[in-house]
Design goal:
Elements (H helix, E strand, L loop, with lengths): L2 H4 L5 H8 L1 H14 L1 E2 L6 E2 L2 H117 L26 H4 L1
Antiparallel strand pairs: 1-2
């Protein structure tokens, strides 16, 4: 119910409520206040018929005024109940939005934490793979170094043997290419290839 519906009635109805029982009671008070005193007594003289008539009118007005008052109270209670419902709905919406925002904040916080963990794990994995690759390369290079060292020793040994061979062609174990060497029959070593 809106505030306009809950507002007290304007104009005639409000005047009727104010003029009804209150007006009758005001008249009764005026009658008693204006009544003449009984000599040698605290009592006053008032018109019984006039007072009874006013009291009857007040009794007749009273149920209507009570109905109006009850209607106003009911309207007021409906407005209060409606206001309470609206306030409750607003609070419920606020709680839902707050929970949603908290959840969203928590989701963002967890996502950021997870992203940091993923980056840290990736960096650690990258370091591990780099160390493994470096170890593998170091092992391969060490093996290659051993092979090259053996090859170098073999080359040196071969060169030393060559250096130790006498320069006399007769003592050589191998014929010199391009030179002639006579066999038992006096022919050159390569003459047979020419035929």
């Amino acid at each position: 119910m809106s505030e306009e519906e809950a507002a007290p009635p304007e104009g005639g109805e409000a005047e009727e409520v104010a003029g009804g029982v209150e007006g009758i009671l005001d008249e009764l008070i005026d009658i008693v206040a204006a009544a003449k005193s009984v000599p040698l007594s605290a009592s006053v003289m008032i018109s019984r018929d006039e007072v009874l008539e006013l009291l009857e009118a007040a009794r007749e007005e009273l149920p209507e005024e009570l109905r109006r008052a009850k209607r106003l109270l009911k309207d007021r209670e409906e407005v209060l109940a409606s206001t309470r419902r609206e306030a409750s709905e607003i609070l419920d919406d606020a709680r839902v939005q707050t929970e949603h925002m908290v959840q969203r904040t928590e989701i963002v916080r967890q996502a950021e934490y997870r992203a940091v963990r993923i980056v840290e794990d990736a960096e650690a994995e990258g370091r591990r793979l780099r160390h493994e690759a470096e170890d593998y390369i170091d092992q391969r290079l060490a093996g290659l170094e051993i092979v090259l060292d053996r090859t170098l020793k073999t080359v040196r040994a071969g060169r030393e043997r060559l250096a130790a061979v006498p320069a006399d062609p007769e003592d050589e174990a191998f014929p010199v290419l391009g030179g002639e060497r006579e066999g038992d029959d006096g022919e050159s070593l390569f003459d047979q290839d020419l035929e």
